[in-house]
Amino acid sequence: MANAQVQNIPNGDEDFVPIPGMEEASLKIFQSQVLLPFSLENGNVHAFLGPFVGQNKKKFGNTLLPEDTSTLPFIHSAKIDLSLFNDTTKIFRAFPPVKDRHFQWLLRVENAMKSSWSETGILDFIQLAKFDLHLFDPQMLLSAIFFWNRETRAFEFPCGFICPTLLDIAAITSLPPVGDRFYAGAFEEEISIKELLITWDKKTYLAFINAHVGEPGTIVSPSEHIAFLMYWLSACIFCTPSLQVPKYYYALAQALHLKKKICLSKLLLASLYTYLDEASESLSRESGPRNLSGPLWLLQLWLNSIFERKLSLT
Fold it and tell me: Residue ranges of the Aminotransferase-like plant mobile domain (predicted)?
């Protein structure tokens, strides 16, 4: 160690001693005995035992389930490309659009369907669409996704495993954690899709709004209500990667229009888990597009609530 070369940290005045080259046996002794000093703001000097080890080295294992190394969190990758943080607007382009785009349509439909939404249990949840959910912290979201394990469906934070739960969804969205299960074919098509005046060739969000919003002073028809619910589910809730209103949300929109007691909280949580899996896998790819979609706005709100004190939000 006496002959080790001393180098300066690029952005500081302190010096450090690099780990010298040595054989494995000697390196183990070095790692167990060397002290790394660090200073506190009050001037007191302390020390870590052993050299600093990269945080991306996995230090614990899952003792309950067999572990698949291909699904380990991105934070444990041998190499992390920090250029991911350069263009976060493109990565998170599927976030809910600005509220001004749909605000007037929301107010129009709400005035007519407020009691129906209340009976269905989605009135409070729809109020989130009145806020700009596209305002988010991309660095926080990406950093959190770095710790997502696609096998355990949990964040492997240094403090332990943690993940959003159904009760978390209920607390954040006011959606009840119980209700009817929804899946393809769960409900009969009581209103034929051919009977509704829905323009399917206008799928982009703005074009869909312009094609289906009713004139001021007119009655909100079933077609307009279902069209609004389809837009809301696509753009504000599940955040489709295509930035369009797909036809497959018709069945769910129709069920909500008919006041079916759908358990949206379970659908939302399942969707969040699915898209977290896709986001983690996308970050692990060496090449290809990395456009993240899904209800990541919910992840942002969940992180805010979990780390409320650390973020000084109160």
Answer: 121-307
